[in-house]
Amino acid sequence: MKIAIYYFSGTGNTELTVKKWASEASKHNIECDLFKFEEVTDKTIDVNNYDKVGIAYPIHAFNAPRIVLKSAKKFIKCDSQKPFFVVMVSGEYMNLNHSSHLKLKSILKKRNMTL
Fold it and tell me: Hey, which end of the chain has fewer CB within 10 Å, N or C?
């Protein structure tokens, strides 16, 4: 299995989380490619060569950071339905944080991606 994980990390906690996640996945023969949203300069992002896509971010005011939502619009429509997962990093546990992915989910649904 091959997974692409796109992430934004303001303080480094999210980056630490995805690197640990990728390290653990590799123990199960899962290949993970990590991409920082701020380093993705392509006008479009094609994830058709991956089995799954992960998106990770710190929660900003109960939402995904602006760079994540803006970058999500760069994903091209997938050839077939593509599963994706979200890793939300937060300093506190609040139920409001659970809805931080809703705008992101709406954007990616239009690109044939399913949570």
Answer: N
Query: What kind of fold does domain 2-114 have according to CATH?
Result: Rossmann fold (3.40.50)
- pLDDT single digits (tens) 32-58: 999 999 999 889 999 999 999 999 999
38 burial type by CB count under 10 A (0-12 exposed, 13-18 middle, 19+ buried): exposed
Residue 62 DSSP label: T
Nearest to 10 by CA among 38, 32, 46: 38
Residue 25 in contact with residue 17, Cβ under 8 Å? no
Listed in sequence order, the residues at least 6 apart from 29 whose beta carbon sits closer than 8 Å to its beta carbon are: 1
CA distance 112 to 34: 21
Q: β-pairing, 82-89 with 113-114?
A: parallel
99 against 64, higher pLDDT: 64
